[in-house]
User: What shape does this take?
Amino acid sequence: MTASTPSPEALRQLAWRAAAQVVDPEIPVLTIADLGVLRGIDVKDGRVEVTITPTYSGCPAMHVIALEIELALRHAGIADASIRTVLSPAWTTDWMTQDGRRKLREVGIAPPKPGGTRRALFAEERIACPRCGSSDTRRLSEFGSTLCKALWRCDTCREPFDYFKCH
Amino acid sequence: MLYALRRADDALILGHRLSEWCGHAPMLEEDMALTNIGLDLIGQARLLYTHAAQLEGGERDEDKYAYLRDAPQYRNVLLVEQPNGDFANTLVRQLLYSAFAHPYWRAMSASKDATLAAIAAKAEKESAYHLRHASEWVIRLGDGTDDSRARAQAALENLWAFTGELFEVDRAERGLIDEGIAVDPASLRAVWSKTIVGVLEEATLQAPASSWMQTGGRSGRHSEHLGHLLSELQYLQRTYPGATW
Assistant: This one.
């Protein structure tokens, strides 16, 4: 044995750095840390346990995300790891980081409004166009290309866009 | 265990029905919407089956529940297994179910069973979108052309007799309700009626006058449609037992 065993805290930080780089396969500009899908990392007796949470019950990306985390950890030299999925507290769009919201806007996806979870569902929504910033926009369809998005259109620049809906 | 299984079966069977629209909806947006809703429901079913398997503590898992039970072992309400029919029939069915599911999951998120409460907290948010989508379509169809209105009204007449079962409580569930684990569906009838009456009014549709209700699904007595649905859903596992991807 030449390599010294890292301290639990060093191991935890190493694991976090590796896992946090995994991207959402459906919206690859976002990492799972941006999304708030990565909940935490614990180290117990030298074993790494990664805790993740699904966005939607049927999110088909969860399988791939779990697999990618394992791969990322292995690349970082961590072989002894397990992945735990928790449902509570339920994920909401408020778990998304500011950095995540900015990245979404940059690729033309309107980010969810912070704190809008329940109100936005039943109130009249005003979503700013991620391209021109106009609020003269309307919803074309409640459901978009993935479970987490709706389809909108801007009436100023006439471009359709995805909206990461409040949840 | 039976309690979780019943809710899982509702979600799986309705989710499968919606998946039948894939590639057949009247427009692309709705093709995506119906399959998105189907995916939400199948996701809820998977969580509930997994929970049922833990409670049962035996050999069965989510796949065994879904693929290796025959129709009489399914415990879903009859409403969700009714065939899609036309677009109006599918959306009216969705409205009748979602107007129940949304307050149901909301109440369930206070369950003393922490796992059920966590599943419910997710399902509640999803079903809020499903309810809004179905409401908007039923209003548009009812308050639309003569043809769309006639189809929406016919769908209501066709499905109305299956709504009573949503509120049924049997002895198995009564105990869980008293323990604060299960939700008493009968307590949701008023909020369901209020939602339905409001939507139908705006849609200029008439609630059917008949109060006769058909039940049986919760105890495994199904309509002939479920067997046909399962023959498609279970085809692969029945033909190639144990096949994996």
